[in-house]
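Margin note: ligand = NAP.
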Amino acid sequence: MPDYAILGAHEGSAPESPAGTLYPPGLMSPRPSALITGITGQDGSYLAEFLLEKGYDVHGVVRRSSTEKFDRIEHLRDRVTLHQADLLDHRSLVDALRAARPDEIYNLAAMSFVAVSWIQPTLTAEFTGLGVTRMLEAMREVCRDARFYQASSSEMFGKVREVPQNEHTPFYPRSPYGVAKAYGHFITVNYRESYDLHASSGILFNHESPRRGLEFVTRKITWHAAAIKLGLVDKLPLGNLDAERDWGYAKDYVEAMWMMLQRDSPDDYVVATGTAHSVRDCVEIAFDQAGLEIAHHVEIDESLKRPAEVDHLIGDASKARRELGWEPRTSFEELIRLMVDADHELLRGGGQAATAQLSRTRSEAKPDWA
Ligand code: NAP
Ligand code: F7E
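Resulting structure:
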């Protein structure tokens, strides 16, 4: 098998080098290169690790901030090349692509927290919706033969039209975030069909990990379970305990992203475990792992309930299983238990990181709709 195939660059045709030189089959090709927007996020950090292991030259887009927040990729800093760019700024995206010359582009950057999308609806549309068009336009301009992955979301299904949801289920988004993602999804499909781009969209259901942001419900629960156990806090405020999600492990899910870009033809794929659990189930497992009584610590905070809720999501990933050979490897219960253990380990030392996190959870922004 040729070297580029082992490394993961595209089978079936000779890979094109960034400068446009074709390498005939049998000749050594250079390392495949990938650019990840959102590399500082949960998925971006796992995907960067995964691609480095596969031998890729990994580039990441980071946006300028007065304080660098690179915790999730600190351990990779000397192995990835970072480019300063912003989804709001076309010029910077073009420059990042020119510098990186990627074979594969993973567009993971977005305003990804659903609750905040009601507080910043226009910005959410700019980042999460129009940002996709800016990336696709930059790709057309600089490297139209690259392969493009768009991070679509199960939030597009919203008020679900059928159960379970698959690639043909109609969308009914229930938040400004879901609406913006539906735009990002369809513009990816449209550019694929209009310009014959290798652009694929992964409709990923919720996926979590010890690197999940503290504002998302699973991590909020596992962090609090560990913090309560250690006597750092006493209460866990939550909103709707009845909401159900199809939760998987982020580390398993980034593999599906890569698998999509190794296909000869671009397409859309649902990525999910096929099982749903409630927020209440999550609390029960986390508190069991920490050896705590729920009744003593969990309180309902009405302001954490959303103006329009997504009640029940469950995905049918049979196309991804069949065509990509993708399988989730981690059960919900294993995931929540490993997240509690990781938070316990993190907080046990009581060091600077834990103190900073504590002040962050205390200052959690309250939405205006309550
Ligand atoms: P995340 O942890 O919130 O990471 C989001 C990333 O986007 C961060 O690196 C962030 O950079 C970057 N970003 C935000 N706005 C940007 C801008 N204007 N310009 C450049 N970068 C920007 O999200 P995630 O959980 O890894 O999710 C990755 C992607 O998958 C997102 O598009 C999300 O909407 C989508 N998705 C997630 C799930 C899930 O369950 N995790 C499910 C379906 C789809 P900073 O570090 O500078 O903030
Ligand atoms: O909420 C309920 C809340 O914020 C899950 C993002 O990655 O997945 C994520 O979006 C459920 C909702 O994730 C609290 O009402 C109850 O029903 O963890 P979440 P999400 O909204 O599903 C999708 C697929 C994405 O694409 C997004 O980017 O939990 N819930 N009480 C709560 N949620 C939060 N955050 N905090 C609570 O206290």
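Residues 1-8, 11-27 have pLDDT under 50 and may be disordered.
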